[in-house]
Amino acid sequence: MTQRILGALSRISPRVLLLAMMLIVSAAAFEGWFLVLRAPWGEYRRLAATRESLAATVAMSATQQGELGRLTAELKELSDRLSGELHAPAPEEQLAVSLMTELDHAAARKGLTLTSVKPGARRQVLSFEEIAFEVSAQGQYLLLCEWLLDFERTLGRSATVTDFTMRSIEEGRQVGLTLKVVLYRPLRSGAEK
């Protein structure tokens, strides 16, 4: 039988034999790819895609953690500043004394004279208590203007000037200023109007 196979192969042209061998090798390579290499190659590609996805997620997570930390610090700073501005001394007498002290120190730094501080009306505005004070001071015009510009730093953002009047005194050498300052503080639970 071997003789007959060799005889048949010797009658075939070398080109056909080469083509048949290439076809057999190609079929074996295709079968090897399909059965042996395709599954690991697909797994490798899936793992590479997963690694890239996880790297992007970790980078985004680090960025979000940094942003979250920054926002937390900003929220704490705003909360501290707001609580510092809104928590005025509980009794009204202490509030008036504190206001007079702050205004007097600020006026003295500018070379002005604080002539009076009178408590005014109190009323509820939304969830805040509005406490008015009438304040009078005298001094040079530009110094009074600087003193007014520094009110936010002196009294905080919870204070507002709602009305003011300037008049010349001592034959124009000094100016008298009368203004209405309103402080806002949060209502305590159970507070009356």
TrEMBL record:
Superkingdom of this protein's organism: Bacteria
Pfam families: PilO
Gene Ontology biological process terms from the UniProt entry: type IV pilus assembly; type IV pilus-dependent motility
Residue intervals passing through the bilayer: 16-37
Assigned keywords, A-Z: Membrane, Transmembrane, Transmembrane helix
Protein name according to UniProt: Type 4a pilus biogenesis protein PilO
Upper classification of the organism: Bacteria, Bacillati, Candidatus Sysuimicrobiota, Candidatus Sysuimicrobiia, Candidatus Sysuimicrobiales
